[in-house]
Amino acid sequence: MKKFQYQLIRYMHDRVTAEFVNVGIVVYQPDTNFLKGKFVSKFSRISQFFIDINGQYLLSTLKHFEKELEIASNRLSELFTNHSSLSEITNLILPKDDSALVCSELLFGIDIDPQSVVDDLFDRLINKYSHEAEKEHHDDKYVWRKVYKQYFDKYEITNKLKPHTVKTVHDHIEFDKAWKNGVWNCYQTLSFDLKRNDSIKNKVYRWSGILSELENSDQELHLYFLTVNPTNNKTINKFIEDTILKHNNGQSLKVTMVNEKQADKFVAGVKKEIEEHLTNL
Question: N or C: which end of the chain has fewer CB within 10 A?
């Protein structure tokens, strides 16, 4: 465990009222010469609080601050000793003047991984309070439009898919991409590329509920989830698969998950199945 220092970067909208919003974080670990910042990339974060803000100018200023921070990081051993404080570094980049950007007081903590400190503090102290934190990086429609549709188009089977409604005991559940060869094959694009793990879990639980309802249908159904998952997050990916695939009863409801790396091979297989089905009609 090593000590680290950090400062919040704040946008001070009005120095008279001292109203501000956190727009970035800078973390410094002297023992390892680690210096890194993370900043908001959209001014909608700030406009939630202050309507009359020049968002483009602020983002430009933050990018300049980040660039200067990277330069300082590459010259730490030359410019500073391991006894220097983070405030000495940030004061050179962002002098105390009448600027709308100010650094907070110096704060301290202990952790093993300084990069995780940057990410965790940014999520907890900045991103958590942004409405955009709940939005998907790529929503379900994006997943179809930008990831999977190109393969269905490539194999010329996009026009073979049509909407289908599954009637259950309590509901009617609609899928806009389906075809039938004895059983209904339905394709549901699904993005788990969300910023927060609790948002991912909530989405998984919602679909788990839908799958439970589909198990009550009289129709035989094979549901394919065409997914985009969080990158390199083995724990959350396992949670998604375990929760969704437990509904694969192999009888009235079959559930298959496809990821973007499997897309081309998978759609080629769908084309073959459709062709075989049409040949046997």
Answer: C
- The whole-number pLDDT of residue 96 equals 76
Cα distance between residue 177 and residue 223, in whole Å: 10
Query: How far is Cα 239 from Cα 197, in angstroms, rounded to an integer?
Result: 11
Of 144, 225, 242, 218, nearest to 186 by C-alpha is 225
Architecture of domain 140-280: 3-Layer(aba) Sandwich (3.40)
Going from N- to C-terminal start, the domains of the chain cover: 2-132, 140-280
C-alpha dihedral (65, 66, 67, 71), degrees to nearest 10: 100
* 270 φψ region: left (φ > 0), alpha (ψ -120 to 50), beta (else): alpha
Sign of CA dihedral 210, 214, 215, 221: negative
Contact indicator for 29, 82 with CB cutoff of 8 Å: no
215 residue type, one letter:
E
pLDDT of residue 45: 56
Distance, CA of 95 to chain centre = 34
The pLDDT tens digits of the residues spanning 175-189 come to: 999 999 989 999 999
Do the Cβ atoms of 20 and 10 come closer than 8 Å?
A: yes
Are 105 and 15 a contacting pair, CB within 8 Å? no
- Nearest in space to 199 (alpha carbons), one of 230, 158, 171, 169: 230
- Cα–Cα separations (whole angstroms), residue 5 to 72, 105, 109, 188, 210: 16, 10, 6, 46, 46
Which residues share a beta bridge with 173?
Answer: 166
Tokens of 135: 């939005």
Is pTM, for the whole model, over 0.85?
Answer: no
78 has pLDDT over 70: yes
Q: Which parts of the chain fold into alpha helices (H)?
A: 44-47, 55-74, 76-79, 86-93, 114-125, 140-142, 149-154, 197-214, 234-245, 263-280
